[in-house]
């Protein structure tokens, strides 16, 4: 079963006009991923200056990353910088987000069947 966080975050990635989501779309494109075909496993605040996230690319690769920015600044998210972009495709099953990621893969497969 897919978590609502996967559905919500993926929808925000594809449609939100909020600076953080627009910046994430730019960052993903810079990494060669299509935001309209990428599934967001999660994107959560961690500490005062960044968000940690995980995504599944169209071809099934799994990446984890952090977006650092000044949350106190009105336009801080617009200049968020990517750190720790890591391909964890071979080891996501042993991580703390394994169940969430497995659900995201199942949901991704359902979306692909509809296309």
Low-confidence stretches: none
Q: Strand content of the residues, in percent?
A: 15-25%
Order of helices and strands: HHEEEEH
Compute the separation of the termini in Å. 20 Å
Large-scale geometry? globular
Question: What summary fits the major beta sheet?
Answer: 4 strands, antiparallel
- Give the helix level as a range of percent: 25-40%
Q: What number is the mean pLDDT?
A: 94
Number of domains: 1
Q: Nearest-angstrom radius of gyration? A: 14 Å
Lateral arrangement of strands in the main beta sheet: 1-2-3-4
The tally of strands reads: 4
Enumerate how many helices there are, as a single number: 3
Verbal overview:
This protein is α+β, with helices and mostly antiparallel strands. The protein has one domain (4-109). 36% of the residues lie in helices and 24% in strands. A 4-stranded antiparallel beta sheet has the order 1-2-3-4. Helix 1 (4-15) crosses helix 2. The longest helix is centred in the C-terminal third of the chain and has 17 residues, at 98-114.
């Amino acid at each position: 079963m897919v978590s609502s966080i996967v559905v919500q975050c993926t929808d925000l990635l594809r449609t939100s006009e909020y600076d953080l989501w627009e910046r994430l779309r730019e960052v993903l494109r810079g990494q060669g991923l299509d935001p309209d075909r990428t599934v967001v496993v999660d994107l959560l605040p961690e500490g005062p200056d960044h968000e940690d996230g995980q995504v599944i690319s169209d071809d099934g690769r799994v990446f984890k990353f952090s977006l650092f920015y000044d949350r106190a600044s009105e336009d801080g998210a617009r200049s968020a910088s990517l750190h720790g972009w890591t391909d964890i495709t071979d080891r996501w099953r042993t991580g703390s987000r394994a169940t969430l990621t497995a659900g995201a893969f199942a949901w991704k497969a359902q979306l692909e069947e509809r296309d």
